[in-house]
Amino acid sequence: MSEVLDLLNEESRQRYLDRACKDGYAVLPDLEALKNRVREKERKAIMDGQREEVSAADAEPNHSAANGAISTSVGTGIERNTSDKTRLLADEDSEDSGRTSGSDTDDDNLAVDDDDDYRSTHSKAVVSMRSKRSMAAESQQMSRQMRFAYWFCFAVVFGAGVSCIVLLILASPTCNTNNSDNGEQLAWWQRNIIYQVYPRSLQDSNNDGIGDLRGISSRVDYLRDLGIRTVWLSPMFESPMVDFGYDISNYTNVDPIFGNLTDFDELIRALHDRGMQLLLDFVPNHTSDKHAWFTESSSSGSNPKRDWYIWQDAASDGGPPNNWQSLFGGSAWQYDNRTQQYYFHQFTKEQPDLNYRNPHVRAAMEDVLRFWLRRGVDGFRVDAIAFLLEDAEFRNETCTLNGSVSVACHEWNTMNHSYTFAQPGFHAIVRSFREVLDSSEFFNATHPKFMVGEMYAPELEDVLELYGNASSPECHFPFNFLLIGLQASDWTGRKIGNVVGQWLNATSKDQWPNWVLGNHDNKRVASRLSASLARTANFLLLTLPGTPTTYYGEEIGMIDGNVTWNETVDPSALNTGDISLSRDPERTPMQWDNSSNSGFTSAGVDTWLPVASTYTEVNVAAQLAQPRSMLQLYKRLAQIRSSEPALQHSSYRLIHATDALLAYAREYTSTTDGSGSTNNQYLVVLNFASTASKAVSLTGSGLAGYQSTGHVQLSASLSTNVSLALNLSAFDMPAGEAYLVKLTPS
Ligand code: NOJ
């Protein structure tokens, strides 16, 4: 079977598996075309062999050769024996018609994967075959016995091929190449929670006050016990650390601050040994200005790498070429004295943007992906994905206030980014990254490589385009930042219900959902909301359909640290002079215990950011000891989520939404056991209000098919007895409480 797939080119194999996953058995008729394609290649190989001369020994049919036919007839055809050659020549006429229909197949037909290649192979083979008519005559002399042996073998081979394909479809643990919930098993990236580790802040192993890879390895068991199976590591590549790793000076090495490649290999082994996956942060938009490519590019206007970055002459007044602004403050153009041109940077001036209109840049970045894939990483989070291209004409952007370019725009936030964001053509670059992940070198049907894109955009539909489509997939999903973008006042049942519906309604069945509550660029959820609502929010996160992402420390409800201006290191604050833009507070060290420096590093060590003062109360050790802590809640949620198909799969039905409450059903009916299993139906009820809701009634609001008594499996407070009977027509919801209720069909 794999040999058959090997005969297909990359694109066809992808299409085949996509269709196999999506259409199941419906794809099988295409086997005929696939078979024709295989035969065509065999013919060519045989003809090539014949041109080199057929030996007498080869021409002697025997049974072991016929066995060989079994093993090679779905293979490359290179070791084809004479009985095959004879059969192919004798079959020529009848197969001509098959080839014709094969070549008519449209682009969507997986079997005729590359029409040009197919046609040229086909015509060469036909010409060659016609010149070998004498061989066909010879073949007709074959004994009936040998013909029978051949056809018997052929039937066995073909039957085995069909069986393999059917088995592949049935036994494949997941429809790996598309994003849909196929009703049965899900891919690892659909099942698992993504846990984001900010390497500087998880664990310091060498007492320099900065987290590192060995530190992370030492906490892998903690993550596993928490219920985490996918770890996303923010950048740990060589970097001058102007933007704390998002300014990379060498994409294929670990920064000495974090360790070395051996430490990296140990980390990945530690994760894989525990059945966990590792995602790296891929930063394709810009390098560090200390990267060798930029050193070359800026060395002279004629350097071969000059065009790897975006260089422009000054405007007529000597100022920047246009009004484009940097996200981190000021003009996005930096003047270079040596070569007397400006270079473009979306972020800090130490992060020059790469020029993706130069194909060498894309090729080089694809090699970066390959480097880490070869080291075993399971996928990537793609940074700043919508910034990859800029307007080729370098037109001025307009101000959001009045749409005018004549009004000076001094801040990125006051401008329409019509020429520097999500430019035409950027999806093709994203697709090319995905193609690397799906290429034959890394293709693994049961364990596909994964890609998630980072794009904050005003229009949801622009973000959703990052899914691509079945024939040109891009990201497995783009991060869903709808929850992270909400103000505290938005956290009402109604608004959250709308937001959830917004994503789910805008996506198709093939577009797997996901939810993000926190990351290294946004205030922590416990700071955005409150410590108690952080529990409710995590309850939501882990019971919604789709992949959840948790930022380190959110499982214990860490709140933002208090980082003074003197302690501030984030360039987005330093460059703008605005401490409210600082991302340092959400990046403070992980709080492991109540020892000095919170177990992040040894006592007395100066940490890169101050440990948040809450560490004495809010820490892992304390919460492991408290039966109703946030950490215990998180573990229970992760556990139940991983074991309950209704919570893993993507079904979601809104039941009830008011200012205070949100209720939704998560229902799953097994399609494999044939029983139409009814015990996988859950109701989630959340109270986002700071007051209790009394005598809530949910019967009659979409729960008609269920008994009016449900059983609480988990509550956000962890104070409710498991299996407590809940009268769904009249129950109380304390402030901030959430219930996961098992439903029983009536
Ligand atoms: C997005 C990252 O999340 C952020 O931390 C970084 O500063 C910018 N990209 C620039 O790489």
Percent strand equals 5-15%
Poorly predicted runs: 1-143, 164-178
Q: Which whole number gives the mean pLDDT?
A: 81
Kindly name the structural category. Answer: alpha/beta
Quick one: biggest sheet? Answer: 8 strands, parallel
**Terminal Cα span:** 46 Å
How many strand segments?
21
Overall form: globular
- The helix content is 25-40%
Chemical compounds bound to the protein = 1-deoxynojirimycin
Tell me which oligomeric state these chains represent: single chain
> Rg from C-alpha positions?
30 Å
**Structure annotation, total helices:** 26
Sheet with the most strands: spatial strand order: 11-10-9-5-2-1-13-12
Q: Tags for this entry?
A:
746 residues, alpha/beta, Oligo-1,6-glucosidase, domain 2, disordered N terminus, binds 1-deoxynojirimycin
Secondary structure: elements and pairs:
Blueprint: H1 2-7, H2 10-23, H3 31-51, H4 56-59, H5 63-72, H6 82-90, H7 92-104, H8 115-130, H9 133-139, H10 144-171, H11 188-191, E1 194-197, H12 199-202, H13 213-217, H14 220-226, E2 230-233, E3 237-238, E4 250-254, H15 261-273, E5 277-282, H16 292-297, E6 311-312, E7 333-336, E8 341-344, H17 359-374, E9 379-382, H18 426-438, E10 450-453, H19 460-464, E11 477-478, H20 493-506, E12 514-516, H21 525-528, H22 531-543, E13 547-551, H23 571-574, H24 620-625, H25 630-643, H26 645-648, E14 653-657, E15 661-667, E16 681-687, E17 693-696, E18 709-715, E19 724-727, E20 731-733, E21 738-742
Parallel strand pairs: 1-2, 1-13, 2-5, 5-9, 9-10, 10-11, 12-13
Antiparallel strand pairs: 3-4, 6-8, 7-8, 14-15, 15-16, 16-21, 17-20, 18-19, 18-21
The protein binds 1-deoxynojirimycin.
